Amino acid sequence: MVLVACGPYTPSDSIAYDPLTDLIEVIGRDRPDVCVLFGPFLDAKHEQVENCQLLGSFGEVFKLCLKTIIEGTRSAGSQLVFVPSLRDVHHDYVYPQPPFLYPDLPKDDKPRVHFVSEPCTLDVD
C-alpha cells in the first residue's frame, strides 16, 4: 500500500500541525508500505510565516516537523519519502529542487527515510 499526502500540513489560521498529527495517526493505523509526503512542510504563503510570527527559525520549525513525522511513524515501519515544494520557506526555491538535508536523522531511521529531489522518479518495489 502506498499513501500519498501533500502539504501544507497546518490549518490556514494557525501554525499548529494538527492535520499532520491526524496523518500520523492514519499511518499508524493503516501501516502503509510507503508514504510519499510532498511539501510544503512550512508554507511560505502561510500568514504567520509571512508576518514572521514563529517561535523559532524556519529551519528549526521544519526540523521539528520532520522529527514529529519520523518518530510518530516509527512503529508503523513505513518507508517515508520526503519531496520538497517550491513553497517550503526554509528550502532552496530553485527548480529542479535538491532533496532536503537532515543530518540529525537517527541511524536507525536511515534505511526507511528517503529525501528526494523535485522532480524525481521513484521506483517502488
Automatic annotation (TrEMBL):
GO terms for cellular component: alpha DNA polymerase:primase complex. It holds the Pfam family DNA_pol_E_B. Residues 2-124 form the DNA polymerase alpha/delta/epsilon subunit B domain. The keyword Acetylation does not apply. It is found in: Nucleus. It comes from the Eukaryota. GO terms for biological process: DNA replication initiation. Keywords: DNA replication, Nucleus. Transmembrane segments: none annotated. The keyword Heme does not apply. Belongs to the DNA polymerase alpha subunit B family. This is DNA polymerase alpha subunit B. It comes from Herpetotheres cachinnans (Laughing falcon).
